[in-house]
């Protein structure tokens, strides 16, 4: 080590000391100058950059900021050009930036508005003029004279400024949260954690400074229509964000330390490698070898994932990337070349050592580093070139930081992080803090004002599947018809970014509020004509739009200005066709309010001018939402367009001050005794309304001492321990008075009497009391409705419900004003207490009565989810006549007086939510499942039934012979003659037999519950439980990472992969023999293949559409003559093309894309021509079409077809499917995909799974359970491989008895990765290997068993062939590849049969 001077350090004096940074002088030499940041040694310097470095560093005149705060800098004053021109400097305060010398009759923090007594435009026109009014008071924008009483006093001006600064900081907070996300990644990888945590400190200090503006004592003096309450609530948001950032500091540091401790071995290895690079780089003689080693190291680091936690020790600056600038060299040091190479390497290593998502974005950086390293091998490089390389590396990394927030907007890396000892605990804690901060942002109940150019993109719903069946959006809107004439304007849009596919929105058209939605066919517009917008009062009005299946409604509530009466208006509409589901693509879905940027395309119905007025979002499907949880804003000037105040108690549903707890938040009252003192009698009162079974009401904790009042299974339960010798005391009972989850308010009081007795009152009546050792209450704080996880531990769960008030010693507390409160909101919507979901156990049902007549005119719909193949969904009877909707062996069946309509698909018991609609009219019965599976039957004539009130049941019935349903039913509706269609409120049903009205359990719980219920007829090993008495819900199952429904083109199917891939259509009209007009859309890259074919049995008469050399060919015969039309162009370009092929007697016509029209005609016209009642799409059965179609085109084409119509009518009567799946979008990869619609492959007879074989296959499931393989013999012997709740099981019956073996992989099978399964059988011995985890079983010997050649089913099997006791009968859903039997590769394209929805050769990529 040399003796360094001039504030340098390092082995070669090449690094600046702490507090100094490199500076390059004009003569090219380097020196170390003081950093423009908080210093450990105070120096006296002159101006540096835009700030003064003196004994008290501050910004230079004309600039503002605080260089003593990490992350802050000196920024130019912004006074909108309205500062005093006579002042050269000091335009604004050097810390706050507030302009101090506004000129031209302007005022404000940025001289942005006209001064009191003046009006005009202070920013653009700069034309502030004196008010021409007797009172000297006028509107600051228009000059309209105002009465003296409306003068805004100084306090109100201050409050307005508070709101402006608040809104600005809301915007800052959104950025801060994104940066917290980024920091979580950095903490989780251990890289650059320290500097990120320091940035937390800066943010916390800044937000804390802003919160100081919102002193309750300052704001309450000028409360107007709840405006102050708004500010207080929002200020609370930021108090909590400060708290979470501080907690994240501690947690992040702990995580970083734990990460470092947990990987010592790997870290040691990497440090050794680093030291080797350094030593080799010191000598110029070994530079070539050093560079080679560097490139090897780069390759190794590039393969690291985010679980490879790794960081370097730093000197000087703590930020990894600023190391570049804090470690410059003196130009005359001989070792600078290799030292700089090491720095470049360190930058690249720090970059490459990020998460997997970030790694994907920095391939160009990696390539650039390699390019630099290659160039450095030559001896003729210059120091300047190397300097540029180093600086360029730093810039590349800085640019990367701008990409990270986009990559992490769903926080997926943290959400999906694998568990690694204590590190995961800390990362999960950070995740919880971020989720809580987001939850708080969602509940900021403040409006935004739109000026006709602005827009807000709101964060979309976290789970778009929840919006499929029902979508409800509530919002408050304020317009002022007197100031802004009502014009056609856009209000909001939820849908695809490009204005395609499904969407919903709201607009003003022709002076009416108009609700618009589209479910895939035509737009539905519902105008609310009963209350024109021009007649709305200039206050906030409540609007609610609702969609249930095809049915839509728009509601308007106008508050009265003089009384408590309200005006309510409603209008309803209905979508055309059968589509009922709102399908949104998570990748392209946007939610815009007020307007949209230029790059977003709206559908024509909503392509209107942006909104003018104020909007405040209220809820989305009963979840509280706020525009302040935005993704981005566009031209939103919150200074000139301040939020409109909303009187929170204007509507009847919110007139009583109440608080909504949605299960994510809680209230915390610190230092209760500031309002009342503990005494001889200490009393707590709380009014609660809920339908939840479980939830915490009151909780106090002090060390090991605690007090908890909670709901347990719907009953009040009190548990406490103040250090009693006998341990905790529990007060619980099933007394009816203690059950309070009935959707009504209940007043609950807890009284502690003489420090030795607790008394519990419900609705002012004594219910129960409990005595204990005499001890005073050892608490000062109380949690209401829940608590943080580290406080909660295993004590209970947070409350879902409403709290009307809380009192301690009869003193009221405003929970929203308490600094510790997070995640709750004001108001108590009635919809929150309606039970739309029900869970049925197989022995339960719900019953009610209504004025309905299902046999004559009926429409009913519901969501259902189950793993049981059979169950009663809906039941109604009149005498011996029954109307039922059931599951039968996995299919949905509508039965009305013996007429049955059955779905085509038979795997609806797959644990996935499905939606069905059953309808009856004068002509037909119709059943539609998931918008795709549609069947109908003609209705026989019958006398109409009398219209009376009749009973009906969901989930079962007290009298039906059909097995009751097991699973979940939600958002059910039925047509009633006494009301509009709306979701059923199960809470109001008169009969509830063992039915839970809470949220439905997860698919994994259903999976385990199914196993638990079926354990009487399943092998014990299938249960997957550690003990007989363990609850199924205690098993930690993870849902499949990949969706069971990859993104696909609506109503489109993919054909190919096998020679006979096809769909077969029946019930073709007889008129086809005379004239036919077929149309379809086609997308393919095939040169040859059959697209469409129809013929008679002998194939003497036929019609076909096929590809030949990429050209479309349409042909049919007429006796011995043949019409043949061939396109001139090729259409196998992978794009969609619309094709129409017409036969009118002897005339044929082919129309392509509406532009190309080709015709051909056969001689004669009286020749008889007819085909059978079966059409083929995509291909034909083996042997057909050979005599009429050229050989290379007589087999299935590979591609997609959609919108097949005959004579303008959709063809939906598919009778059979062979190797056809939805037309998936996006990337694909080699393999065979078994779609959720169900299907299987039968191997050709060259493969035999007899008594001795070895089978290997790789799978990537998308559903947790399904049949992978099944082999059977006529003698009831079989071998079946199933995936059951992510475990693999081989079940064998060799004629003596059944035996099995199973493996539960440590990481499961549903993680989105490929998994290798090996099954080896040798007579009665079976071994199972899943990802190198092995198990085996030895069954009984059967000397008479002989090896026979039997069919091998892959991915599923016909229902009749599966054994009775098998745990799951559903087909496998997911990808499969590399199947070998006895080391011979299996080719599914040569299979004996491909049945159902199976795509051979292509899988949707993960």
TrEMBL record:
Residues 1028-1037 have a biased composition (Acidic residues). Residues 77-130 form the Laminin EGF-like domain. Residues 445-644, 656-828, 835-1000, 1052-1223, 1230-1403 form the Laminin G domain. Disulfide bonds join 102-111, 114-128. Residues 1019-1039 are annotated as: Disordered. The gene is LOC109900668. This is Laminin subunit alpha-4. Keywords: Basement membrane, Disulfide bond, Extracellular matrix, Glycoprotein, Laminin EGF-like domain, Repeat, Secreted, Signal. One of its GO terms (cellular component) is basement membrane. Pfam families: EGF_LMN_ATRN (PF24973), Laminin_G_2 (PF02210), Laminin_II (PF06009). The keyword Protein transport does not apply. It is found in: Secreted, Extracellular space, Extracellular matrix, Basement membrane. GO terms for biological process: cell adhesion. InterPro entries: ConA-like_dom_sf, Laminin_dom_II, Laminin_G, LE_dom, LMN_ATRN_NET-like_EGF, Neurexin-related_CASP. It comes from the Eukaryota. SUPFAM superfamilies: Concanavalin A-like lectins/glucanases, EGF/Laminin.
